Amino acid sequence: MEKKFYITTAIAYSNDKPHMGHAYEFFLSDVIARYKKVKGFDTYFLTGMDEHGMKNARAAHKNGMTPQAFVDEKAESFRELHKNLGISYDCFIRTSDRNVHWPGAELIWNKMDEAGDIYKKAYKGLYCVGCEKFITEKDLTEEGKCPLHSNNIPEEIEEENYFFRLSKYTDKIRSLIENKELEVVPESAHNEMMALLDQGLEDVSISRKEDAVLWGIPVPNDPSQLMYIWCDALTNYISALGYGREEDANFKKYWPADAHVIGKDIVRFHAALWPAMLISAGVEIPKRVLVHGFVTSDGKKMSKSVGNVVDPADILSRFGTEATRYFFGREMSPYDDSDFTEPRFVEAYNANLANGLGNLVSRTTKMAESYFEGNVKRTSESPVKSGSINLLGPEASLEGFGVSYTISNFYLPRYERHMEKFETNKAMDVIWEVISLLDGYVTDYEPYKLIKIDKEKTEGVIFGLLMGINEISKMLLPFMPDTSSKIRSLINAKEGDEREIISFEVKTPETSLFPRI
Ligand code: MSP
Fold it and tell me: Atom 24 (ligand 1): residue with closest C-alpha?
């Protein structure tokens, strides 16, 4: 059977244009999707918009638009970001789509109802529109506000709603998470869930009175109530594949999800409510929830009131897709909060793209062109013997090994291990270790001097460098796909009968890959 990999991002609220946190999550999911594709998985990558609920309806109202017209506009701004950030999604779902999404949301409701897990109850509680959830007094700050949404004072709501018997699933979910049948990554998020489950889950309201929310999917057989936005939104992960519709081949093929990529504020919805809904409805649970940290600015949450918001559209238009992807991949840590500031961005760009990668590629291709007219062959001297340099660093001596042997045996496995654990920044660190390895190689062999004494040996040195750059281009592919393919077309590796590289037809880039900022 073919290996499959189904990966999703959270679907963003449509109340505003996309911010850095959204951009980072899309990027992270895209890297994983591209990596799995390279590894031969039949990959399906879903993203989309969470368009119902109070938050979106109020934003539309404030802008003097109907909810539908408003969310249509926001969906366009997200699509634009996806395009500019090079996000290779297969499906962009919108929860206002009555044909694609609603049948699945209705079916899961009916299944949960048939399982006896839905009941009606009068309820009074505090609701945070920012989180789109009921919040208890003990979770509030001293000023009586939601810790995540200091602009909103939670609203008191008293209604009769439908409730879902989430409490019933506490033990089941506890054991699934404990046994890693539902893997919650990283450890801190796993522990947060275990602590929550130790306290026990409470039943949750899964509908709102129609006039209170104004905008949502009617509850089957009771249009006076609309589905609670989280119940509606979580279902996107299966409705997008065809759950509830006739054309459900993708659902059969790709479900269960291999990775739901989400931020740390919505772990409970994904690792408690969602699996409980699925178990209740008789659907398999996802395999893994990957929880990333927040994008911050100067250590603070990006927020309009603090005035530290960096707009991804602005960064992309000024610095381009590849530089932005570099920063997200290497300079941000997927499982921790990470700062995005323009000074850090520019510094990292100049040091590692203009100098590091850009400089290595340009000087190697220049030497290849001027010493060998661009045609560099594997000679008897290649792969090059390591003389004075120690290719592995202080741990071992690798006298006699060639560059590509060293990379494939000692660097690639580390890169792969990090990629398998979704440690994107550490995987990228390995790529930059290889860049310094090759820089050191140039310093040690001084091909610009060697060419005057021994042309054949110089060809071996340049061949080794090109082999190294070729490996770099492969490792870069999930992170910086355009740079990867540009490098490949500059060095143009030619394979022999045994599929080993026998020569390179090198061109010097017309303009520097990464001009200094
Ligand atoms: N609509 C819900 C998700 C429903 S999924 C069934 C939602 N939307 S959101 O627009 O608020 O957030 C979308 C994603 O962006 C979430 O994974 C969230 O954690 C993430 N981020 C929001 N702000 C963020 C940062 N500042 N940094 C990184 N990611 C953050 O929640």
Answer: 21
Given ligand 1 and candidates 237, 239, 262, which is best to mutate, with the most ligand atoms within 8 Å of its CB? 262
Among 158, 178, 164, which Cα is nearest to 109's?
164
Q: Give the Cα separation of 318 and 82 in Å (integer).
A: 16
Burial class (CB in 10 A: 0-12, 13-18, 19+), 363: middle
- In Å, what is the CA distance from 128 to each residue of 146, 264, 389? 7, 17, 61
Q: At what angle do helices 170-178 and 187-199 cross, to 10 degrees?
A: 150
Q: Residue 503's beta-bridge partner residues?
A: 377, 494
pTM, whole model, 2 decimals?
0.94
Cα angle: 509, vertex 511, 517; to 5 degrees: 130
The strand pair at 118-128 and 91-94 is best described as: unpaired
Rounded to whole angstroms, the Cα distance separating 86 from 476 reads 14
Pocket probe for ligand 1: among 14, 25, 146, the residue whose CB has the most ligand atoms within 8 Å is 25
pLDDT reported for residue 157: 87
Is the predicted pLDDT of residue 131 greater than 90, yes or no? no
Residue 81 near residue 23 (C-beta atoms within 8 A): yes
Q: How far is CA 193 from the centre of its chain?
A: 21
Position 458 pLDDT exceeds 60: yes
**36, 131, 133, 292: which is the annotated catalytic residue?**
131
